[in-house]
Design a protein that fits this description.
The complex is a heterodimer of chains A (about 160) and B (about 500). With about 160 residues, chain A is an all-alpha fold. Chain A has six helices and no strands. Chain A has two domains: about 5-55; about 75-155, no CATH class. Chain A has helices spanning about 5-25, 30-55, 75-100, 100-115, 120-140, 150-160. In chain A, helix 1 packs antiparallel against helix 2 and helix 4 packs antiparallel against helix 5. Chain B has about 500 residues and is mainly alpha-helical. Chain B has one domain (about 1-505). Chain B contains 23 helices and two strands. Chain B has helices at about 1-15, 15-35, 40-45, 55-80, 90-100, 105-140, 140-155, 155-160, 165-180, 205-225, 240-250, 255-270, 275-285, 295, 305-310, 315-320, 320-325, 335-345, 360-390, 395-410, 415-435, 440-465, 470-505; strands spanning about 185, 190-195. Chain B has a two-stranded antiparallel ribbon. In chain B, a hairpin with a 6-residue loop joins strand 1 and strand 2. Chain B is globular and about 65 Å long. The N and C termini of chain B lie far apart (about 60 Å). In chain B, about 60% of the residues are buried. The chains are: A mainly alpha (about 160), B mainly alpha (about 500).
């Protein structure tokens, strides 16, 4: 038996299927019927996939119609870059939470281009200015998208500082 | 009828109406290109502007915008792997794969040309079929709609890839999509299912953040890992030639284009099924054209037929107007907003649209035709510039793509929950691609799950089990069985051919 990433994912899907069925038991028939109809196959199919993934030999893997990640990058470098891009994505999300979109956008572009992209100051500032200009003109001025305030602004407002 | 057609054209060609058409098409062009800002939202935003317009001016404006959104949505999907619209996701699989191989021009040429042909077929269908389609749509009750959804679900067997293992995984992904569609307030008993105490989830997981995250984030991760431009190190050169090649590809596969347009038309006419379903079903149909396992394996990796199929399903925009115009049943959210515009202008959809307002009805047809020709023409003029964006180095383009992904997700309902869904869907999308779980069946299961549950309950409550014996239900069921078995038949035929070849040798 081999606990590959795929086997772990199948196991998690199995748990989801089981969770759906267990939750559905507490609901009235009308609300529970479809979750049961769906939950049982999810559990069963994931169980079969888990067993296939755990006991398969030679790394045979199903591959449906979908794109594949590039395979010509060194594994160690791949892991490092994957972790970096996920951290940047989460970082952007926290930027948005803290200061709201209008401030997070230029800050993120600046930070990414300078720290990750190692771009020159000229390229960084020009790109940041263009991005922010387009963002402001289109989403704030023209479309009037109601962007939420960041936690910092909300906090300052609560303290009557803003 | 012919007089009505000419009057409709003359109505659109009046300078004021034509100017509004141009403005509408211009807005629609950018709405399509920008991820997340849906056509329906923009139509709603434009409603206050039509108060003082005549119907002859308002409809070219609104339809000019509405009819090109899908066409230009394909551009973002192909170039960046970020869906321009929730209805332009299927084209990413092969379109963006081609862009990564340095064939962005060819992919865009095929996408735009097939979308144009699809739009023209949809418009023609709208013109010809309004009187014919009325009895057809009215005869489709909940049981038939449920079976149409089952027919759509059979595409899962095609989208899963060949082999028992792939089918098993595809079915599991589709069922998982169904599970995600269960989130929210159940419409039969009012029970809150898997909402985790969040008001945001009462209406279910929103489609736009889900597709944007699921498809865009894995592409961004791949781009960051490769550390190159989208087109990699590939020499782009001869982009113009690539565009022509893409356009020629559409005509080379003209029967596929027409078939997928008809699929789009059929799904477009059916109220409630939505545009996203049309693209996926058309994509599944395109993959069925593969004659060998090698050919089949090429889908998802840059087969031009994987662009032409979903592109041609653009016909659903015109077809979606048929139930709206002829009896006031909107086929999608966008057409529901358009229906509001009809009432605002004092027009009641129904028989009057085929008599008193026939020129207005035909002006809708002409608007779709003219707006799409103009937009595709303009896009083709700038296509080299658009395609060359795939040459911009990754470090510069990644922050822009993340920004588009976040804003695309956020504008679904302007809620922080949208961003969380986008991120979670991105994580799920990454894991699915990493471990070889196909995303198309998942998204099809998600889109159809909610509809299937509703129609199933309405059918059972209204007809008990008698609905199972309705003739149309049985015909669609037979069709569904045939579609589900077709990939296996293909495999069997192929195996027989190979055995015959081996015996000859």
């Amino acid at each position: 038996m081999r606990l590959s990433g795929r086997a772990i994912m199948s196991f998690c899907i199995m748990l989801v299927g089981a969770g759906v069925c267990i939750n559905a038991l507490a609901w009235p028939f009308k609300a529970a019927l479809f979750p049961m109809i769906v939950g049982i196959p999810v559990f069963g199919l994931a169980l079969v996939d888990f067993l296939c993934a755990a006991f398969e030999r030679g790394g045979k893997q199903a591959s449906g119609i979908d794109f594949k990640f590039s395979e010509d990058v060194d594994k160690k470098l791949e892991r490092k870059r994957t972790a970096a891009i996920f951290l940047w994505t989460l970082g952007f999300f926290f930027f948005v939470l803290l200061v709201g979109f209008p401030i997070a956008v230029p800050l993120f572009v600046l930070a990414y281009l300078k720290l990750q992209g190692k771009e020159s100051w000229a390229v960084t500032i020009i790109t940041m200015a263009i991005t922010w200009g387009v963002f402001y003109a289109l989403f704030i001025w023209f479309l009037n998208v109601p962007f939420m305030e960041g936690w910092i602004q909300q906090g300052l407002r609560a303290l009557n500082i803003l | 009828m012919f007089d009505g057609l000419i009057d409709g054209l003359l109505l659109v060609l009046q300078w004021k109406a034509f100017l509004y058409l141009l403005i509408g098409a211009f807005i629609g062009y950018w709405v399509g290109i920008l991820p997340g800002i849906g056509g329906a939202t923009t139509l709603a935003l434009m409603m206050p502007f039509i108060y003082k317009m005549t119907p002859g001016e308002a409809f070219p404006f609104l339809m000019g915008m509405h009819s090109v959104v899908q066409t230009t949505g394909d551009i973002t999907s192909v170039l960046f792997g970020v869906p321009g619209e929730a209805t332009t996701v299927a084209i990413i699989l092969d379109g963006h794969a081609m862009a990564k191989k340095g064939e962005a021009g060819r992919a865009l040429g095929a996408a735009l040309m097939s979308a144009l042909i699809g739009a023209l077929i949809g418009a023609a269908f709208l013109a010809v079929c309004i009187p014919i389609v009325r009895p057809l749509v009215l005869s489709f009750g909940s049981p038939e709609m449920f079976m149409v959804i089952i027919l759509g679900l059979t595409c899962i067997s095609t989208l899963s890839g060949h082999g028992k293992r792939n089918l098993l995984v595809g079915l599991m992904c589709a069922a998982l999509g169904f599970v995600v569609s269960l989130v929210g307030q159940d419409q039969q008993a009012g029970v809150l299912r898997f909402t985790f105490g969040q008001l945001y989830l009462w209406h279910g997981v929103p489609l736009i953040p889900l597709v944007v995250g699921l498809f865009a984030i894995p592409e961004i991760v791949d781009l960051a890992v490769r550390g190159t431009a989208i087109a990699g190190e590939t020499e782009l050169g001869g982009l113009g030639k690539g565009v022509w090649q893409g356009m020629k590809d559409t005509f080379k596969h003209i029967f596929l284009t027409v078939r997928c347009s008809l699929i789009g038309t059929f799904i477009g006419v059916m109220p409630g099924l939505g545009g996203a379903v049309a693209q996926w079903v058309a994509y599944a149909h395109a993959t069925q054209g593969a004659k060998t396992p090698e050919e089949r394996a090429g889908f998802g990796k840059g087969d031009v037929r994987g662009i032409i199929g979903p592109g041609a399903a653009n016909s659903k925009e015109g077809a979606g107007l048929i139930p709206t115009v002829s009896f006031g049943i909107p086929a999608s959210t966008s057409t529901a907003v358009l229906l509001g515009a009809f009432f605002l202008l004092g027009i009641v959809p129904g028989p009057d649209m085929l008599t008193k307002y026939l020129p207005v009805t035909f002006s809708l047809v002409w608007t779709i035709v003219i707006a799409n020709i103009l937009v595709v023409g303009v896009s083709l003029l700038f296509i080299n510039r658009l395609a060359s964006m795939t040459e911009i180095r990754g470090t510069l383009i990644i922050p822009m793509l993340l920004l588009l992904t976040f804003i695309g997700g956020y504008t679904a309902s302007n809620n922080i929950g949208d961003l969380i869904v986008t991120l979670l869907a991105g994580g799920l999308g990454y894991l699915m691609v990493r471990f070889g779980y196909p995303r198309p069946p998942f998204i099809l299961g998600f889109i159809l799950g909610h509809l299937a549950e509703n129609y199933f309950y309405i059918s059972t409550t209204r007809y008990e089990l008698e609905w199972l014996y309705r003739p149309k239900v049985l015909v669609i069921l037979a069709l569904a069985v045939l579609v589900a078995l077709y990939p296996f038949f293909q495999q069997w035929r192929l195996a027989r051919k190979e055995a015959a070849h081996a015996a000859q040798r």
